[in-house]
Amino acid sequence: MRNTFRGYIRILFICVLLTVSLSSFAQEKAVRFNTKIEKGGNGCGGANITITQNGKPFQTIVTNDDGKVKIDLPYGYNYLIVVSKVQLCTKRFEISTVNVPIDGNPQVFAIEAITLFELQKGIDYSVLNKTLVKAAYDKKSNSIDYDENYINQMLGELDKLRKLEAEAVAKAKEAEANYKAAIVAGDKSFQKKEWQASISSYQQASLLKPEENYPKDQIAQINKIMADDAAKAKADADAKAKADAEAAAKKKAEADAAAAKAAAEAKAKADADAAAKAKAEADAKAKADADAAAKAKADADAAAAKAKADADAKAKADADAAAKAKADADAAAKAKADADAAAAKAKAEADAKAKADAEAAAKKKLEDAAAKAKADAEAAAKAKADADAAAKAKADADAAAAKAKAEADAKAKADAEAAAKKKLEDAAAKAKADAEAAAKQKQTLMPLQKLKLKRMLKQN
Fold it and tell me: Does domain 2-172 have CATH number 2.60.40.10?
């Protein structure tokens, strides 16, 4: 029965990769503990084995690559052996060498393999916080043997551990496969320079196996490549932007210069055209004013000559009429002779004065016309309007003069003798008034003179 139980225990420990065998080894006053630390069926180097003796630090060992361990445990103590490695599970064992006969056979306690596995997320590893195996000296077998009572208590826990280890191994294999697939995908994307996809694959691999440096190194290399590419792209973009800006500035400067030149040329041409037009208009205006002044002078000279001829004819007619009137009017002969003499003198003086006044008026008119032509260079429109008004006034005056002449002729025939003296005086006064008015109103001078002369002729 005892052997059957031990056989069951052996099978159970094989399932949890904790196979124990007993053998004898010559070691004085110490139990030789032999085992091998494994991971995935291979020796696990770098595992830490911490041993306490009656709760006090006793020894610390770091395994070589083959994972093999040999430890001598002096008699008379209780030992706790803790096997661990970073990112792997931790397992605990208790071995007691108390009551081992000092003079007995050397004792050896061996565990064929202690398997450490990677910890997986989502699995309860609290069972590993307990001691998995307890061994002590058994007097009946005279050897270090398992604590059967403790094993009975741990059967369920050990079965649970077996399942955990199986799950851990399966997940580790799956993680390894996923890791390799992620590395292959990352390397493939890396070769294609698909940086973001490559980084994503390497990050996935790094999450699966954080202790591996390769995916981290690849990510760092990609980040450097991307940074270098970004820096180069930025430098190229900056250089292109600068070149484009300089080209645009040069083009704008050339366009502005061309526009300024065209504007200057257009302004110069416009100014030249305006100056030429203004000069042509001024020349035409000056010529028109000169022609008008010459015509006005000629008209004034003709009017003066006609007025003199009319006055001379009138004077002769008046003298003849006066002589006839004197012969016919005996009673008034002497008075009439005196009157005629006085009238002749007055007429001569009036004629001389009229001639002088007409010549002075004509001269002043020419001077005024020349001055006015210069002063009225910008008032041509007004002068034209005034000339039109003067023409209308002349037409009205001519019509009125014709009517007045008819009436005056009729009246002159009856009043010739009585009005002869008065008419001469009126004519002289009128000639003087007309000459003064001519100086103030150059536009209407000739029409008014003609009108007055016609009235004088009509009335005489």
Answer: yes
